[in-house]
Design a protein that fits this description.
With 144 residues, the chain is of the alpha+beta class. 24% of the residues lie in helices and 26% in strands.
Length: 144
């Protein structure tokens, strides 16, 4: 049995993936966790991430998406997958949080669900809360 995600503060560390490593780090298993349709939030989060990390992991030259910061998650249980990624991007005027939590690639590099797939919603709330504290952006906190 997989332990449920705790509702107490999670301990995780995010390791920024620079543009030079982006294509090697991101997997086909990364899927949208949540879209937050708050336009003012995009600029706040982008400013905080730019201040902390500079250039995003990837920059899209399209009107619906202009930045994507990608992170490897450390110190968090994501078994059986070999790694865990989180992506923070703007998408069509809102903020998009994505991750491969609950997914992994099979031998043919096709995404398949893991036993943690059913916990994606709870994981999304944990990520949202963590990012709210980490970036000091109150709109990201789970009590929205």
């Amino acid at each position: 049995m997989i332990p449920r995600i705790s509702t107490i503060a999670i301990i995780m560390q995010l390791e920024f993936v620079p543009v030079e490593e982006f294509y090697f780090a991101l997997t086909l298993a990364v899927r949208t966790l949540e879209d937050i349709a708050t336009p003012s939030l995009v600029e706040q989060v982008k400013a905080k991430l730019t201040q902390k990390f500079g250039q995003p992991s990837t920059v899209a030259a399209a009107s619906q998406n202009s930045f994507n910061y990608v992170f490897r998650v450390k110190d968090y249980d994501y078994s059986p997958a070999p790694q865990l990624m989180i992506s923070i991007a703007d998408w069509q005027g809102g903020l998009r949080l994505s991750s491969d939590y609950g997914w992994m690639l099979d031998e043919e590099r096709k995404p398949v669900r893991t036993e943690r797939f059913e916990q994606r919603s709870a994981f999304s709330q944990e990520v949202r809360s963590y990012l709210g504290d980490w970036l000091d952006v109150p709109l990201l906190k789970s009590d929205l």
